[in-house]
Amino acid sequence: MPIDPSILEAAQSWLTDFFDPAVKADIRELIEKNPEELTDRFYKTLEFGTGGMRGIMGTGTNRINKYTLGKSTQGLSDYLREVYGPDGLKVVIAYDCRHNSQSLARTVAEVFSANGIGVFLFSELRTTPELSFAVRHLGCHAGIVLTASHNPPEYNGYKVYWTDGGQIVPPQDQEIIDRINRLRYEDIRFEARQELITAIDREVDEAFINACVQHGSFDAPGREALSIVFTSLHGTSITAIPEVLRRAGYTGVTIIESQATPDGSFPTVKSPNPEEPEALKIALEKGAEIGADIVIGTDPDSDRLGIAVRNAEGQLELLNGNQTMVLMTRFLLDHRKKAGFQGDEFIASTIVSTPMMQAMADAYGVECKTSLTGFKWIAKMIRDFPDQHFVGGGEESFGYMVGDFVRDKDAVTATLLACEIASAAKSRGSSFYQELLQCYVDFGCYRERLVSLTKKGMHGAAEISAMMREFRENPPASLDGSPVVRIDDYQQSVSRNPREGTTRPIELPRSNVLIYTTEEGLRLAARPSGTEPKIKFYLSAHQPIEDTEAYPVALQELESKLDRILEELNLNG
């Protein structure tokens, strides 16, 4: 295939003496032998999405490498110096188990130091929640974690945290991007000042682990009787979760040793994503073998967790992120209620997560704040409302945050919280699963479904854009026979009632998300992923049930309803 002149020009700009010989050799080979791959590597520049900058590792502007990360770090350094002045600046850097994470973290540290910025660099891999914690614990102006979360092995990424320990949000994100876009790659300062780089490890670990135990413990009885199977899926959580559980008093913990060694190839799983049942297959088999009460697995950087518990038939059943979020939130609200509500409490969730969070908040008389997708927005809520008490919150993508000592998804503390719920329930003759069913009785039986369609490369991005345009220009008039009565277009910041012809503004920041709600409360949301080459569709349906015995029939009815909606929208893959 012929190479587009603009792409060839972009690629040839990497053939100067500034770039490493291996990089130049790689580009020359791509120009001669693989124009299609060259096009994919240079047709765009990686940008910050909902989770920072994330992409495939390799040479090119559309890849993660020392130059794309170096340019981002140079731009962030310039921005920090403009905002806070040149003196006394500090950042903290962590990295996960992925290939090249350690060397890329070192490169990022060296660029910061070359700009006169002090760097605390973890000496070994650490979890993302510990990085978030460390920003405030060490009094830093920013933090970086090198991770691609749950993406496949060829990916890596770069997440930026601000002084509050949360990920960057507007206006900082765009201001930083503007600084980055002003730069040439030749503007990157790679000449490290080693005296400004300080290795950190156990002192911060101790503070973080103690904080996790403090915020995740609720004096649950029967901890020693709870049988737990835990897998770190070759990721970073092995550095924290076993110790947190031990200090909290859980002695019946079985660790999946074949997945305990950090390894960026993730050799025992197709994908290290606890959202996917296959990832927990080995742990589930061990749980069935030993009769475990609960099975927990975390993703590579330990911000997401997947949970399986014994269902009504005694079989281990994987829960989804909405289910664990609902039960964790109820547990926290119950404890807050016992202590006495102060009237300033709030819980948090996202626009594509289960509406059950709002129903629960209404029942408890607390506020439920709803944000765009991504925990950076929940962290921003805490910063924006300092006079209110954040109880806890989560999103459907298997993330949860307990209190505000960590300002991002925190699978370390959430793992302890899940065990507290399971232990307390078991001690009174109930179970994690039974407590979830009681939530359905009390707040309505909700069922959600997520469909993700992968569309890779430049053509995939165009296809995703076309699908969103089609949904925006030709919205469904009904879902499963129920008329659509509200269309929320977050890109246009408008909520429209097609039946009445009325509109109202949406106060949240603009985002390419569409949500359709029907007369009976069915809901469909559509959005492109900010971190993966995917378009995602989220469905939700609900109905009341009188008791837990009614759940199986209600579940079947709701699942059939979701199946019909997918069929009529042609979203069955």
TrEMBL record:
Q: Which cofactors does this protein require?
A: Mg(2+)
Q: Does the keyword Cell division belong to this entry?
A: no
Superkingdom of this protein's organism = Bacteria
Q: Which residues form a coiled coil?
A: none
Quote the Gene3D superfamilies the UniProt record gives: Alpha-D-Glucose-1,6-Bisphosphate, subunit A, domain 3 (3.40.120.10), Alpha-D-phosphohexomutase, C-terminal domain (3.30.310.50)
**Domain (Alpha-D-phosphohexomutase alpha/beta/alpha) ranges:** 47-183, 207-308, 320-440
Pfam families membership: PGM_PMM_I, PGM_PMM_II, PGM_PMM_III
| Keywords linked to the UniProt accession | Isomerase, Magnesium, Metal-binding, Phosphoprotein
Do you know which InterPro entries this protein is assigned to?
A-D-PHexomutase_a/b/a-I, A-D-PHexomutase_a/b/a-I/II/III, A-D-PHexomutase_a/b/a-II, A-D-PHexomutase_a/b/a-III, A-D-PHexomutase_C_sf, A-D-PHexomutase_CS, Alpha-D-phosphohexomutase_SF
Task: Provide the family line.
Answer: Belongs to the phosphohexose mutase family.
**This protein is called what?**
Phospho-sugar mutase
Origin species: Robiginitalea marina
